[in-house]
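Practice problem 4.
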């Protein structure tokens, strides 16, 4: 049953990407950060969408991708060993510093209306397993 759900979600997710021309760096960050927030901004009308980079696609939304980067593929395959982890356990101090740095980091983009809708759905589908397990 889980495989069938995974296949359906992945199929829908992949169909969203196949009909988009997203920038590689944008897509990589979208897939690695588990949390996404968007809000409407009227000030960007002269800036093109940073997801598709198409001229004539004005940015009207601001998108913030947040959270510690991870490899979601391990959750989709059911093999949590695919998720990269350090071979040595960090000290408490190192762990706190790393968490602070990672939490402060976020990737921000200005999106057009259509890319924002597709991005939001793609992000929810891609990170669905991690939200189930955490």
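Answer key:
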């Amino acid at each position: 049953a889980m495989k069938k759900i995974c296949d359906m979600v992945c199929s829908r997710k992949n169909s969203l990407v196949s009909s988009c021309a997203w920038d590689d760096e944008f897509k990589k960050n979208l897939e690695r950060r588990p949390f996404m927030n968007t809000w409407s901004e009227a000030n960007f009308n002269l800036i093109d969408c940073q997801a598709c980079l198409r001229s004539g696609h004005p940015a009207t939304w601001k998108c913030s991708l947040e959270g510690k980067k991870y490899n979601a593929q391990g959750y989709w395959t059911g093999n949590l060993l695919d998720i990269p982890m350090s071979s040595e356990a960090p000290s408490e101090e190192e762990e706190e510093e790393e968490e602070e740095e990672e939490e402060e980091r976020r990737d921000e983009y200005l999106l057009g209306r259509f890319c924002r809708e597709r991005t939001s759905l793609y992000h929810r589908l891609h990170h669905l397993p991690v939200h189930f397990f955490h």
